[in-house]
Amino acid sequence: MKRLFLILAISVVPLAGCATTPKPCTQEWVDYKTDRILRKFASENRFIINDLRRLTNAEGDLNTFATIQLMSRADDLQRFADSFQTIVLPELQQAVDECGRSEEFVPALTGFLREEGVSEDALEWVAPIIGLMQDMRDDVGNRSQSM
Asked: Could you say which residues form the signal peptide (predicted)?
């Protein structure tokens, strides 16, 4: 009897995996893949996302102390932006390549942060800084390669 139960249990496990993953390239699959990739990124970067949420107070004004505190962590902010660009976007691109269309996938970092509850005022403040940091990093990388 135990043997029959074990065989039945083993044969059902693959079916459970099929039931949870939507059919590839459907809108449900796009939502599933995007959510899975972004949820992992969010959980790995929860600390910095929470700091970005705290950039504005309850009235929606920028919190001076929080902005200074965040700028003291410029390296963390840079790693956050870099990991979005080097991990999240390639994973999304891989899913796009699998289906051959991109319009449902490619989220901007600001769009992701907006979904995570970061206010528009905070995004307006931090987005140019992240962009500048990216440009500076790219310039340093390009100079190193040409030497």
From this structure: 1-18
Residue length of the chain: 147
Could you tell me which of 76, 59, 58, 54 has the C-alpha nearest to residue 125?
Answer: 54
| Backbone φ, ψ for residue 56 (5° rounding) | -115, 150
CA torsion angle for 24, 30, 33, 35 (degrees, to 10)?
-150
Q: What is the pTM of this model?
A: 0.65
CA angle 22/24/26 to nearest 5° reads: 80
pLDDT digits (tens, 9 = 90+) for 16-53: 555 588 888 887 888 888 899 999 999 999 999 999 99
Write the pLDDT tens digit of every residue in 64-91: 999 899 889 989 999 998 999 899 888 8
